[in-house]
Amino acid sequence: MSSDIDAAWETVLPKIVDASSNLETPAYVYLPDVAASRFWQLRRILPTGSELAYSAKANGNPDMISALCGAGALIDIASAGEIEMTRRAGVPQRNLIFTGPAKSHEELTAFTALEGGIVVLESAAEARRLQSILTERKQVCDVLARIRIDAKLSGVQLSMTAAPQFGFDYRAVLNFLADFAAYPNLNFRGLHGYLGTGIEDPEHALSCCNRLCEVIVDIAAVSGRDIEIVDLGGGFGVPRAPDANEPDWPGIGPALQEAINRLRKELPKLRRIIFESGRYIVGPAGAFLTRVIELKRTSDNVNVVLVDGGAGAFSWDGAQVGFRPGPLRLIAAAGATPLHDRDILEASIYGPLCTPADRIAHRIGIETPASGDFVMCLRAGAYGYGQGTGFFISRGFPTEYVVGADGISLSRKRVEATAGL
């Protein structure tokens, strides 16, 4: 990670200590300014004239969404909850892209309650549901058709190519476009594709882009449809391992520009190119904060650090049971012995769940922890909160804080497991 991000987190440490008596743990701490900076860092790498959407599924915190919208991001959403969250965050409807399979009648109704934005269609049946709603309202809506193509890709954390719930296959999208006159309230604007996510090899990301461009040009030629908007997804990953370097995303910038230049020549009506990103933008902008309950030493001299939040609150973007932990550090509680005066020991860190899988880190070197200290897990801004299992053993969901010029402030209160009963 860049030294700028490391420096940003260094400035947060004294604020955490100062506020320690008022901080509820486990918790997430976010730096919206870092997220906005990461947005622009990626935006500068992408081809000239393209747009960048933030995938809200990576982190749906309204303060983070608001900061990214203010930085100029479109917002990619995929549920009624995310529709509501973006409205609370003040995102204009025109900046929303509604994606995802199995959109219900209620969700499509909620999205089209305000005019503007784009719906990404995943099936002809979904198009019929949307057409019915718009006919009743006497509205129209811009739509893209999502395409699912057969592509063998390596270096992808999660492939979208073999998952049949997503989008139209090649033959299906051609049939859909041939029958598009059946949807008079839908404005067909173009195509959407997404081959994979969590890509840490820039060459694989470039391959994804090139493959999608080839298929989009072919569909346009065979269907005879004008393509005005193309959403090429993204999948830009970030490493979790403490010693891992940031992928060389700037290195593929010129080749991406060439790919988009070719696409524009092939599609003369093309006016908007959209990329998407989630974890690249918010992963380094968040940290998981948990408090040390005790240091337990077994009779065979194994050191176990017990903390108040583990796998139920924190998944580290899918990395479980601490086999490859991300970077973490100990923060001494206010008034405690400074870390530089403590011995370094080998220890494993476990949360409070009744399962051996609740392990944050395994046999790492760390300053001797004391009760009341904090363990801060960095690069935790993506998917950590959303993939937590707060109802397991009724531990509840963590508190969320944001850091600004005035210090640390509450963003979202702790959600108890008994909520809604």
Termini separation comes to: 43 Å
If classified by CATH, what would the architecture of the largest domain be? Alpha-Beta Barrel
| CATH fold-level assignment of the largest domain | TIM Barrel
Tell me how many strands there are: 19
What coarse outline follows from CA principal-axis ratios? Answer: elongated
Short description:
This protein is an alpha/beta fold and 421 residues long.
Q: How does this model look, in words?
A:
The protein is 28% helix and 24% strand. It has helices at 3-18, 32-45, 62-71, 80-88, 105-111, 124-137, 170-178, 202-223, 253-266, 279-282, and strands spanning 27-30, 51-55, 74-77, 96-98, 118-121, 141-147, 158-159, 186-193, 196-197, 229-231, 272-277, 286-297, 303-307, 328-331, 344-350, 359-367, 374-377, 399-404, 407-412. β2 (51-55), α3 (62-71) and β3 form a beta-alpha-beta unit. It folds into two domains: 32-277, Alanine racemase (TIM Barrel, Alpha-Beta Barrel), CATH 3.20.20.10; 284-412, Lyase, Ornithine Decarboxylase, Chain A, domain 1 (Beta Barrel), CATH 2.40.37. Residues 155-160 and 320-324 have low confidence and may be disordered. It has 421 residues and is of the alpha/beta class. It contains ten helices and 19 strands. Strands 1, 12, 13, 14, 15, 16, 17, 18 and 19 form a nine-stranded mixed sheet that branches. Strands 2-3-4-5-6-8-10-11 form an eight-stranded parallel β-barrel, surrounded by four helices. It is elongated. α2 (32-45) crosses α3 and α8 (202-223) runs parallel beside α9.
